[in-house]
Amino acid sequence: MSSARHRRHKRLHEQILLSRGFSILIGWLLAVLLPFVVFWSWQTLLQPDKGQLTALIVTTLAYASSHLLSLRLRAAYPGGRSAAFIAPQVLILYGLFALCTFMLQLQVSRYLLIASGACAILWLYLEYTLTYKSMSLKLAVVPGGRYTSEILAMDDIKAIPLTVLKLDHRYDGVVADFHQTDDATQRFLTQCALNRTAVYDARQIYESLSGRVEIHRMSENNMGSLLPSPIYERIKLVIDILVVLATLPIVLLVGLITAILIKLESPGPVIYSQTRIGQGNKPFTIYKFRSMRFDRAAPEQFADEDDPRITRIGRVIRKLRIDELPQFFNILKGDMSLIGPRPEQPTFVKQYEEIIPFYSYRHIVKPGISGWAQVRQGYTASTDETQIKIQHDFYYIKNCSLTLDLMIAILTVRIMLTGFGAR
Asked: E strands, 20-178, where?
């Protein structure tokens, strides 16, 4: 949603009350200053010692990072406006700052960090509640074209069709299909821009609001621009390895218990291996805990939610994504990442390449244990659903960043708790 911004609030009081600076200031008073004064005193605030000054700086940085990340996720990606993101991202960032203070041996009160984090969560929830309606995008849509009809059908924005080419209310922008505009519409859009009202192409807005990139011909997108940054890929690789190594003791314990339960329930190997297509269109062997009855001769096919082949233990580990834990070995081998498009079986890849000539472009990045398509759509069980999944994959490749990866990680945790998309 970074393509469209909230521009209709032009009055002075609106610009102040809804500004990022005002929100951060009020939040700092509640989440940093208030806990500091409660723990010590106003006099200490004026003349803090070295430890108290360090605590003030650390809590300020932790709160500011949490608030800015909250605003970033809310504005940049589809689904980011959900209140479900607030608590996880605050806990993650405050946890990282607590870890840094421990590693650097800084004297910072753990109780102060906890109190500051709790106050930050409360303030962000309160701000979210108070500003939700004001921060919803309000777009005027010039009818005509496939993407404009899709935008008008969306529920998470205020999209209002223009029956006449005239703006009677304040809008964040005007949306039109640039490929289907007549002379009168082009004059109207030009006048909107001159009046400082943003004008957007319907396709661009559709991508940013739906989280999907539709490509019917190579010429429709600058495919070269979809190449991920080499710096991002290197940082992501380091993060993948660090996360795998840090969680290894827990993963091994959960894996051992899972292996015993699988072996007790049904005959066959505990680990199931299969050939998948990875980065660069190269095949590799993926590993999973077996969740179905063992049949080496079974053909490649989609797994439905009510698939009778799934065992009782298999149904549980699929819902909690425990069956994916052996893929940590794939990450250490360099075949996969924690976040990325899910790898497909060679038969399906060949089938989709015949339908979509540039299907394999999704293999420009490493496949992942979880991905944008999984958290937005869930696993697919048909060719039509797979075409939608490919659009999500293209969106991820086009917008891949550490922030988007963090958002996917948070959504993955939600999926593990709710079971959405587990097959």
From this structure: 138-141, 158-161, 173-176
Sign of CA dihedral 267, 269, 271, 272: negative
Structure tokens at 347: 């038969």
* Bridge-based pairing state of the strands 283-289 and 368-370: unpaired
Contact 141, 175 (CB under 8 A): yes
User: CB–CB of 187/166 below 8 Å?
Assistant: no
| Residue 142, both tokens | 């010039």
- pLDDT per position as a tens digit, 310-348: 888 888 888 888 999 999 999 999 999 999 999 999 998
CA distance 327 to 307: 23
144 dihedral zone (left: phi>0; alpha: psi -120 to 50; beta): left
Do residues 205 and 4 make contact, with C-beta atoms less than 8 angstroms apart? yes
State the Cα–Cα distance between residues 74 and 135, nearest whole angstrom: 10
Q: Is the pLDDT of residue 408 over 80?
A: yes
Q: pLDDT tens digits, residue range 151-168?
A: 888 877 888 999 888 888
pLDDT higher than threshold 50 for residue 277: yes
3-state secondary structure of 292: strand
